[in-house]
Amino acid sequence: MNDTAISLRLGAWWEANARDLPWRFGRATPWGVLVSEVMSQQTQMSRVVPYWTDWMERWPDARALAEAPKAEVITAWGRLGYPRRALRLQECARVVAEDYADKLPRTYDELTALPGIGDYTASAVMSFAFGERIAVIDTNIRRVLSRVFLGVESRGGATSPAERALANRMLPKDEILGCDADVADNAGSAEHVVNSTIRGGKRSRLHRGERPSVTWNQSVMELGAVICTAKSPLCDTCPIADDCAFLKAGRPGLGERRTRPRQRFQGTDRQVRGLVLAALRELPAGATLPREDADKLWKDQIQLAACIASLDDDGLIEILDGGLRLPS
Ligand code: SF4
Q1: Where in this chain does the record put each HhH-GPD domain (predicted)?
Q2: CA-based, 20 to 30 A from 313: which of 158, 170, 223, 230?
Q3: Ligand 1 atom closest to Cα of 235?
């Protein structure tokens, strides 16, 4: 098996097939890339696009988000799910604005010290926004690497040391293709974003000066999202099928996972919390939802009361004498 050939074939596939998401191809600032990654953590990227676009128009940088009223931030998060992420993102924005003069820090340690930013998001920002050579490890990448190089199904759960070692081993070296080092070093700067603005389509990674490790991370992740999916991989159309150990082995244990299947949404606290927040988002700014109206949102009053209390604990709503409202 030739690792370089796999990397080149995946890169060519990425070049021709990558989804044209607005934060890709150098069109977003590092802060915009970070926002896209936080929004995509529990939500499909295609669903994130309209939210991200509105969000970045309204709050184009960390300082703007830091100064926004909480209620507006929660409302703009809309139906992206897990709304505590919105508040964590605003906390992150405050630290970036105050401690880093509104510029996202560039080191792994500084990024992971920001509120709500873990290993995956920090690595993704370093690779996709700053062009640094670092292995990005998410569910899709773990699945593809495990299948292609080890011939076994990735079973979920926490990333194992072996998976991390595999991701580091397979990360291509960074010889820059078709550009000088200054271009890549400037990746993510305001100037780079302007210079890379795409008119009428995607720009070649050669013209963007994208490093091989960045292309690798993006292409493996994209393959896992659209071709090498968990349950129904499209091996017939896969650009690296000839080199895939999992396919050669007859796809043993396809779709098996170590983790338990996801809890159904219907009837869960997540659903009830979502109903309460949706009702509050529909009110005019600053308005209160009378308690008797809130009580009609869900039949099980004990579950409803617990969910309202948990939303209050999370800082997502305020409980007043007469009702509920989004935090000011
Ligand atoms: S051949 Fe099939 S299992 Fe292997 S990487 Fe491609 S889609 Fe995934």
Answers
A1: 39-182
A2: 158
A3: 2
